[in-house]
Amino acid sequence: MSLLFLRLLLLMVVVSLSSALSPSPSLIKIPSSAGITAGVNAKSSPWYVKTFLPTSYTPPPLYGRYVLLNQLQSTCTSLRDTLSSLYILSALGKSSPANAVALTATLTFLTRDGAGMLSTLLFSRLARPFSLKSDVKRWRFAADLLCNIALFTEFACCNRSLSLFKLTLALSLTNAMKAICGIMASAASGPIDYYWSGSDAGNLPELSSKSAAQSTLSSFSSLLAGALLARGASRPGTTAAAAAG
Length: 245
Hints:
Blueprint: H1 2-19, H2 47-52, H3 63-95, H4 101-126, H5 136-158, H6 164-196, H7 204-233, H8 240-244
């Protein structure tokens, strides 16, 4: 079981980081020879194309590969987050008095969320001098890398017999890292979406709606897979160390 979870999580990390290197612009400026053509016949397209891909224009080349890698990254992150939440709740149950588990968990999660909110505000202020649009790939890769570090830190903390104070402090730190990851990923998504729209702002609404449909499919798949993964991880003999590798 431990070897299975080790291989699974290593695969998730590889997919998560490789998505950051998927075809996307390194600069917000798009050359005029992007090869955009219009006039796609939406009526003759299959239902899944109408649901998940733009039909009023033709995106730049490699858009399909980008969507596949991006959704794989999202699914892998969701699965690891499900495992992390499972072990966090288990660790809180061991660190809390028997008659105050619910209260302790609530206060811990409030403290963790508060740390994430403060980190969001602080990083937004400190990131102003930097040019987020000039090196999109590096910011996206840094966001995925920071998310991986945060998740594995949570696994490592849950595997140790930490006091409630130390566990809360560690979870606050990891949630702050996730919050910063969210800012960097959001900042990078703007230029990336602009590129896939063919440098035409009029195509952004349709592209955003299709991206939302893709994310919904990914979330639904993660929900089903996460339930099976959590059930397997909660079996006797499976620990956070086994899951984290």
